[in-house]
Amino acid sequence: MSRQYDEHHRSVMVHEALHYLLGGRIEGTYLDCTAGEGGHIKAILKATNGQARVIGLDVDREVLDLAEQNLEEYRGKFRLFNSSYVDFEAVLRQAGVERVDGVLLDVGTSTFQLKSKGRGFSYELDEPLDMRMDLSAKITAADIVNSYSESELSRIIFEYGDEKRFARRIAKCIVNRRPLSTTRELHDAVKAAMPPAERYKRKRHFATKTFQAIRIVVNKELENIEGVLRSIPGFLKQGGRIVFISFHSLEDGIAKRVFREKSDSELKILTKKPIQPSQEEVELNLRARSARLRAAERI
Ligand SMILES: C[S@@+](CC[C@H](N)C(=O)[O-])C[C@H]1O[C@@H](n2cnc3c(N)ncnc32)[C@H](O)[C@@H]1O
Fold first, then answer.
1. pTM (whole model) above 0.85
2. What residue spans define the domains of the chain?
3. Cβ atoms within 10 Å of 135's Cβ, excluding its own
4. Which of 40, 124, 140, 182 is the most exposed place for a label (fewest CB within 10 A)?
């Protein structure tokens, strides 16, 4: 793999994810829809003494190379597929698996995507505005910022970025500065839209919310989550578990709604309220602070 990258992804809520996913079992077949660098897969294989089998998917072919390396010691116990979880059914068919004992989704970006050069996710780097997790997809972040109307941009920044106060000003600034082709140009447009005093008074960097909003649109993240959560329960064995970890209230809200709708017929909800990471975890890994975990069991 040629990308420069020297910071590894820290898997979030590993203990909690294993607790709900395995429910005390040590055997079985598990599907990790968002394999990333393979951190959760490794934890599953370790906790089950290598007795479980894991099928891992990731839409980002570059991150799977890292997963392959990280899981070296468990060769033969897992299979990785470069696929969107939208197509999980085809992958299960290809792997010869009808139903699984558990499914994990840990949605969002991996540290690899944020930190490696040339992927265009980060306001900290100056590079082409890309943000595609699926490198074969056609639409990039540059396409979105250069083609959406000012009101569409304002809406997505407000809704998906949760940028309540400055969404309109940011959208206006983006439109005035078109065409934008780099992460630096987007960063600077957001900066120009904000009163100087506001830029540095936030807990998060001022461009975080806008970058998040555009990334969600580029990768169709919300539609994909809704689709997979609706269809996954049909592929769980009775007593099989689904564990969903998200970093955004809209994503968590989708899981809450879909689990509730299915709670009469297909699922028993295991987490009345979303589980949050421990204080210790947040201290060790700041990225974990917004993580929320929901779990349900196939009836
Ligand atoms: C937070 S990371 C997962 C980290 C992983 N659990 C670990 O412990 O290393 C999220 C991953 O989901 C992947 N992803 C996002 N959308 C996807 C999709 N539609 N299908 C498959 N993978 C997707 C991203 O490429 C990214 O690698």
1. yes
2. 14-112+221-298, 138-218
3. 12
4. 124
